[in-house]
Amino acid sequence: MKVVRIGFFDSGIGGLTVLHQALRFLPNEDYIFYADTLHVPYGEKSKEEVREYIFNAVDFMANQGIKALVIACNTATSIAVDDLRQKYDFPILGIEPAVKPAVQSCEGKRKKVLVLATNLTLREEKFHNLVRSIDHHDMVESLPLPGLVQFAENFEFREEIVVPYLKEKLSSFDLKQYGTIVLGCTHFPYFENSIKKIFPEEVDIISGSIGTAKNLKGILEAKNQINDGTGDILFFKSGFKVEDKETLSNYKKLLIMLDELQLCHLNFKR
């Protein structure tokens, strides 16, 4: 019997932070995780380039017989999710910055929201439309942090390296003004502890990963497509199956690391 898997796609290892949430809600499903590492980072490339990379990757995954696809990349979601849904007949879920819960949590506190993301995500009309629909009091500000994507892809998580980068990028911000930080790139949750060191203790840090995982479970339940699988994950890098032990070990270490971080965005609170 052919195993029908759920596909997860990202430009790199950031999508593992979303897959980590799916494994919590759907531990018995089987998965394909596709990282387009030949073309990472997406956030610094043109929209046209990125669209081509995305469609090539999703064509590959569709040929694997997936029953649902999660675009576990904020940049890819903002650029292509609507067009992908027109082309394919399986459910396609995207991820977007968790601006709505952030604004709702800050309205009564008279605090601002700071969205941290890639340049391309923050430039996209989809993001600006999202903010306009929710932010009626000019509470939302944003900052691109492309360096965090590069750190993650290089497996560089040491606080003595990451914290100085964050301090430099945030040097012109009054950090006391903010009530919630939105992690608008799936690579950024790896650096949550470093981000905590920069902002006041009472600041909340959230992302959209948990909402995406919940939506995935709800869609599969509604379609009666919940499987009793093994939780097996096949990993691909830009169309090639990952079979070398070192890379597989690194991916598994990252999933374990995410467990150990006890990420704030699991419940939107510290």
UniProtKB/TrEMBL annotation:
Molecular function terms, GO-annotated: glutamate racemase activity; identical protein binding
A family per Pfam: Asp_Glu_race
Root EC class: isomerase
Amino-acid positions noted as binding substrate in the UniProt annotation, renumbered to this chain: 10-11, 42-43, 74-75, 186-187
Keyword hit for Cell wall biogenesis/degradation: yes
PROSITE patterns: ASP_GLU_RACEMASE_1 (PS00923)
Positions of the catalytic residues: 73 (proton donor/acceptor), 185 (proton donor/acceptor)
Sorted UniProt keywords: Cell shape, Cell wall biogenesis/degradation, Isomerase, Peptidoglycan synthesis
EC number(s) given by UniProt: 5.1.1.3
Transmembrane segments: none
Coiled-coil region list: none
Database matches in PANTHER family: GLUTAMATE RACEMASE
UniProt function note: Provides the (R)-glutamate required for cell wall biosynthesis.
Name of the protein in question: Glutamate racemase
Originating species: Neobacillus bataviensis
Taxonomic classification: Bacteria, Bacillati, Bacillota, Bacilli, Bacillales
Underlying gene: murI
